[in-house]
Structure formats: C-alpha cells, structure tokens
Amino acid sequence: MTSRHFRRELLDGLRAILPLVLAALPIGFVFGTVAAGNGLSPLETVLMSALVFAGGSQFVAMDLWTHPASWSALGFAALLVNLRHILMGASLARSLGLFRRWQTVPALLVMADENWALAEARARRQPLSPAFYLGLALPFYCGWVLASLGGSLFGALLGDVAVYGLDFAFPAVFIVLLMGFWKGADTGRVLAASAVAALTVHSLVPGAWYIAAGALAGLVAALLSPVRQEVAA
Amino acid sequence: MTLDPATLAAILAMMAATVFTRLIGALLVSRFTLSPRLERALTAVPPAVLMAVVTPTAIATGPAETIACLVAALAALRLPLLPAAGAGVVTVALLRAAGL
Predict the structure, then answer these.
(1) pLDDT of chain A along its 233 residues, tens only?
(2) The domain containing residue B95 runs over which residues?
(3) Which of A122, A134, A145, B33 is the most exposed, fewest CB within 10 Å of its CB?
(4) A174: Cβ–Cβ under 8 A, 6 or more apart, which residues?
(5) Where are the membrane-spanning stretches (chain B) (predicted)?
C-alpha cells in the first residue's frame, strides 16, 4: 500500500467516525461522572475505560458496583453483556483479509459497536483496509478514555445530555446504518426476530442482555430462513 | 490517585471477559470451515445487532424517540449518514422541548 493510499484510507475512517466520537464524548463523560460517584478514582476510571473499553458493560458494572468491588460478579456481568462481541467478531473476521496476522488481534481488541458497524458497512462496498479501521478505532478509543477522565474530574459540571438530544445520536446513527443493510424479505425476517427478542428481553431482564438476545434471534432466523424459495412459509 | 486492589481485580476480570468475547468469534471462524448456510447466517449478524440496540429506543422509550427513529430511517433513504442521523437528533431535541 502506498503512503498516499494509506493516508486517504485513514482520513476516510476518521471522517466516518468523527460524528460518533463527538456523540460518545458526553456518554464517556457521564460514565466518568457515575464512576466518581461510585468512589472510583480518576486513575481507576481511566484504567477501566482503557482496558475494558466497552461502554455497555462499564455502565452495567456501575449499576452492580459494591464496596469492595466483586471481581467475579463484575467479570461475569461483562461477559454476558458482551456476548454479542462473539457474533460481531465472527462476522467481522470475514472482512479482515487485508489485515496482517499481527494486525487482526489489536483490531479485534478495540472492536466496539460503533467502529464495528462502520467497518461492516464499509466492507459491504469495498475491501476493508487496516488504515481505514485505524482511522475508525483510534479516535474512538482515545475519545472514550479521555471523556471518562473528563467526567471523573469535572463530572459535577455537566447538565443532562438528554436535553440536547445527544443521547439519541447513537440510535440515530445505528438506524441509518441499519437501513443500508436492507436486502429484502430475508433481512425483514432477521430484523423482526431481533426486534421481538430484544424488546421481550429488555422488558423482562435488566441490563444489556437484550442486545445479545436480539443478535442471537437474528442469527437463528437467518439459519432457519429457507435456502430454496419453494420451502418458504 | 488511588488504586484499590479489589477495584483493580474487578477491572482485570472485566478486561478478561471482553478480550475473550472480542477474540473468540474470529478465532472460531478462522479455525473451522463454515457451511454456506452458517456463512450466510453470519451476514445477518450486523443488522440483527443494530436492530436489537435500537429497538427499545424506537418502541419502548417515548413518542419523541419513536418519531425521531422514523425520521432518521426515512432520511436515510435520501441522505448520507451524518445529515440523516442529525435529522433524528434534531427531531428528538425539538419534540422533547415541545414536551413529548
């Protein structure tokens, strides 16, 4: 890959992730604020954001936090909340053909819903380059870690982010990306299964279980959907 | 700058869990040959995850969020990512300001 090509791919990635980084900043800030409220020091907050780097499970951890912290309960909760990563990683792995062996593991370790979704959307149109993925993942990772530090230090100053609609940035982006995945009735079945499972689990079980439930239901729906059209119900 | 041992242990346990979930799917896929059926089913994962993430917001949060989700979806038919998502954010902010 030429350096010009590298730079262009990197910039493409940066441009794609920038709005999501901006949307993640207030959420990271809120996380830092909540963590400070739970008695985590700025160092502990930054360590968690840098090493765990998973917003969903970090917020769940804040819900479950005890004094002293229970590593088994929190580790298990993180495992459950991030079960969707298994399917996401399996799906993304098929688009990592341009990645060298040493690049795939760090790429997967910084996989988050946001950069994963953009990478999958890119891979539908053209081969996914390591430079593009770096452009997605690096600012998102740094933004998340720095925003949690900011929240930990200055959290008390922040008002309610819901007032500005910023909390809605993630669902809005996900819906737009989702529309790009539409490929007819098969997609419809997958989405219906995912929505029903997610809604059911969301109303019955606290925490982020509903995401894994929806992902699994969508996978099952796709597995069950007829390969031959004449079998269609 | 304090670092409580129990907190550090919890952070490391959470890290171990997320490292496992992030790597194991790709590892399994690279080790085993997938049947065409499973291969096809895996392509359903991205839309299924996105749908699961947005469904509670779209259906079970409030009228402002439901309407804004529809606006974002319709805008996505015509507009690129940023303006389409922006239309959803502006919609939700306006509707909330209007008391919905």
Answers:
(1) 578 899 999 999 999 999 889 888 888 888 898 898 888 999 999 999 999 999 878 887 887 788 888 888 889 888 877 888 998 999 999 999 999 989 999 999 999 989 999 999 999 999 999 999 999 999 999 999 999 999 999 876 766 656 677 678 778 888 988 898 888 899 999 999 999 999 999 999 877 678 889 989 999 999 998 764 434 44
(2) 44-100
(3) B33
(4) A113, A117, B50, B53, B54
(5) 6-29, 41-59, 71-95
**Alpha helices per DSSP H over chain B:** 5-31, 36-42, 45-60, 63-78, 81-97
Same domain? For B57 and B97 the reply is yes
Examine the predicted complex and report whether its ipTM is higher than 0.85: no
Q: How many domains does chain A have?
A: 2
**B63 and B95 belong to one structural domain:** yes
- Residues A69 and B77: their CA atoms lie apart, in Å, by 47
- Please name which of B37, B16, B20, B38 lies closest in space to residue B29, comparing C-alpha atoms: B38
Measured between CA atoms, the residue of chain A closest to residue B67 is A172
How many angstroms separate the CA of residue B61 from the nearest CA in chain A? 11
Q: How far is A55 from chain B (nearest CA, A)?
A: 11
Residue ranges of A 74-133 with Cβ closer than 8 A to chain B:
74-76, 78-79, 82-94, 96, 104-105, 108-109, 111, 113, 117, 120-121
Domain that holds residue A193: 182-233
A171 occurs within a structural domain? no
Q: Are residues B28 and B48 in the same domain?
A: no
Q: Are residues A8 and A34 in the same domain?
A: yes
Nearest CA in chain B to A218: B48
Whose CA is closest to A108, among A116, A120, A100? Answer: A116
- Pair (A56, A160) in one structural domain: yes
